Amino acid sequence: MDWTDGYYVGSEYTSGYYHRLGPDHLRFVCRAAGVHCRIPEAPTYLELGFGRGVSINLHAAAGEGEHWGVDFNPAHVAHAQDLADASGARVRLFDDAFARFAVRQDLPMFDVIVAHGVWSWISEANRQVLLQLIQDRLRPGGVAYVSYNAQPGWAGLDPVRHLMRLGSNRILSGNAGGGGEVDRALAFVEEVVAVNPLFFADIRPAVSHAAGLSKHSAQYLAHEYLNADWYVPYFADVAADMAKAKLTFVSSARLLDRVNDVNLTPAGVALLDRLKDPELRESIRDYLVNQRFRPDVYVKGAIRMSVAEQEAFWDSQTFVLDCVRDRIDFTVPGALGDASLPEEVYAPLADALAADGYKPKALPEILALANLPALKRMDAVSALTVLVGLDVLRPARNPGPDARLRSRAYNEHVLQRAVTGPYLKHLAAPVVGGGVPCARPDQVFLRAWWAGHRSADQLAAETWAIFQRTNERAVKNGQEMTTQADNLSVLAEMADRFLSSVVPMYRALGIVD
User: Fold this and answer.
1) At a CB cut-off of 8 Å and minimum separation 6, what does 193 contact?
2) CATH architecture observed for domain 19-152+230-260+290-304
3) pLDDT per position as a tens digit, 180-198
4) CA gyration radius for the chain?
5) Nearest-CA neighbor of 190 among 217, 220, 219, 212?
6) Would the pTM of this model clear 0.70, i.e. be above it?
7) Local structure of residue 299 (DSSP, 8 states)
8) Edge-to-edge strands of the sheet including 66-70?
9) pLDDT tens-digit readout, 39-54
10) Beta partners for residue 434, in sequence order
11) How far is 61 from 88, CA to CA, in rounded Å?
């Protein structure tokens, strides 16, 4: 086996950001589940297989502590190091195989170890290396995050992945025509499906799965489907491995997984209530929702919080919106379909969170501002948890001046790339210790705003000047503007909204002063 160890390296992975890997989110997940964890405000953190390094760099720039990361792909490490150099954060990045990294003599004990998009795509030998590393290097009370493709949701779909691999191997052996490797693999799958194999007649979900492949980027498809290794376990398999490393399952990092109303039928809820063993209950839940992907949180030495400790946590934890108030969608997706949240409860809560310039607030202040005397405390806790799960609300922290300076430096790099490309989709926000989404128009507006242009017309003019150089146009209601006057008018409307809504939220998030 060569240095790739069977992992696809024909292209770099996508530049995604995953806030659920962040120490602040993982701490919140544990405490919301009523479990103690020992993640300090300045943790020692390790990300295994960090891809292009966007997540580790955003958490290092906006948060505190020392961040370590390892990825065997040198192109990934080079990109990640560029981001680290831009912010000046304490990030140590290594271009190593997991086995080589695990025997380094300078490894510290870690408070957090995360592995996202790794577990299902590495060999069994490498999984054992990671398990041993977690057992040896995670502190008692520390948190481990591992995500993976899971059964039973992949049952019947694995043959589609096998077809992709067959097509890829056929291509690499020179038995196919021109075109990109992933495009030709997709064409091969389509060619097979088109002759109506009995497999697809019997397994109808595989048909829709194959048809949906083309909606994904070539980078995603290559890294998802073309690796030599492909491990799709049941939850019980992973939990058993983690138990060997002295880890206890706590919760899904995806908080909406716990919203029963959109995921389980009443009969399903009743069934789970009858099951006393937590791991058995979790396994059966996967059948009830046909789970395909699990982002699991484990603690080494889990201790339950008392009722008083949980109440104290909810009284002290502050929250801040990372979505402007008028764009919050009170729709919750789930295994049973989408459901609308009761706006008579959620709208006042959102208004309270947006009040006073989006200032971070704890539960007592939120309830006082929302003025919902009939709302029970337990229901308010559930509502805030749902808003966090919807990715419109984040646990907040009180950042120091260094985190603000690192975030500003990182964001200046992002805003420069908004002009030159390739652009990134998140800014560092020190009040949440991680990244928040920022569309490219807002990045260009923020760049001009930092340059001292504070009116909507000025922001529009600066943005239009960039658009002319990059041959871009403003879009309104799906329609591309053609004339300069129309472009400036639409950009001014967008800039006015940026000034009135986005800037106050960015100020609360610590992005601007």
Assistant:
1) 200, 207, 210, 211
2) 3-Layer(aba) Sandwich (3.40)
3) 778 888 888 888 888 988 9
4) 24
5) 212
6) yes
7) E
8) 91-94, 66-70, 44-48, 110-115, 138-149, 293-300, 247-252
9) 999 999 999 999 999 9
10) 429
11) 8
